[in-house]
Write a structure and sequence with these properties.
Layout: H1 2-21, H2 57-63, H3 66-73, E1 92-96, E2 102-105, E3 109-110, E4 118-119, E5 128-133, E6 140-145, E7 151-156, E8 166-169, E9 174-178
Antiparallel strand pairs: 1-2, 1-9, 3-4, 4-8, 5-6, 6-7, 7-8
C-alpha cells in the first residue's frame, strides 16, 4: 500500500513539474480567451445561423441528452473509447451538438490512439475559440464553439503535420453529418 502511495505522489509531483515548465509558444497563457463570434455587419445581421447563441442551463438541458449537457455545457469529459465518433472514418462534417455550427471536416481527422476523435485543424479558424484551462493540476488549452461557447475538448501541440496540433474532442459535444457520396 505504501508503495502505491509513493508511486502516486511521484506521478502527481512529476505532472506538476512538467506543467510548470512546459512552454507552449503558440498558446501564450497571458493572451485573453479567444471567443470569436462572427462580426455583426450588413452581410450577416439578418442571418440567425451566424449569430452567437446564449441560453440558460434549463434551456440547454431540454435540448441536450444528459451526457451532452455534462460535456458541452459543464465542461465534462467522456471516457476514452466510449464516444460515438472516436473510430468513425466516414467522410463528412462534425458540427457543434448545441448550435450546429460546422467545426471539423472528417478529412482532418486522424487516429491519435487516445480514444477521442482527434483533428489536426478546425474547419475554420473562426469556428472555435481557445481558453486557458488550469484544472486538474495542469495548464491546458480548452477548445470551445465560437458561436455558443460549448466545451468541445482540448488542443495539444503533439499532432501531425501540417499543423502539429491535436484537437482532442469529445464525441458528446459533436454531431456528425455524413457527406453525400457524390459531393465533397
Amino acid at each position: 500500500m505504501l508503495k502505491c502511495v509513493v508511486v502516486f505522489a511521484v506521478v502527481v509531483v512529476g505532472a506538476l513539474v512538467v506543467s510548470a515548465f512546459s512552454v507552449h509558444p503558440s498558446r501564450d497563457e497571458f493572451t485573453p480567451p479567444l471567443r470569436r463570434a462572427p462580426p455583426m455587419n450588413a452581410s450577416n445581421e439578418s442571418d440567425p445561423d451566424l449569430l452567437p447563441i446564449a441560453k440558460d442551463d434549463a434551456e440547454w438541458q431540454q435540448r441536450l441528452t444528459p451526457e451532452q449537457f455534462k460535456v458541452a455545457r459543464k465542461k465534462g469529459t467522456e471516457r476514452a473509447f466510449t464516444g460515438a465518433y472516436w473510430d468513425n472514418h466516414e467522410p463528412g462534417v462534425y458540427r457543434c451538438v448545441c448550435c450546429g455550427q460546422k467545426l471539423f471536416d472528417a478529412d482532418t481527422k486522424f487516429d491519435s490512439g487516445t480514444g477521442w476523435p482527434s483533428f489536426f485543424q478546425p474547419i475554420s479558424s473562426e469556428s472555435v475559440g481557445e481558453v486557458i484551462d488550469r484544472s486538474w493540476f495542469a495548464t491546458r488549452t480548452e477548445v470551445v464553439c465560437s458561436r455558443c461557447d460549448a466545451h468541445l475538448g482540448h488542443v495539444f501541440d503533439d499532432g501531425p503535420q501540417p499543423t502539429g496540433l491535436r484537437y482532442c474532442m469529445n464525441s458528446a459535444a459533436l454531431k456528425f453529418e455524413k457527406r453525400a457520396s457524390d459531393a465533397k
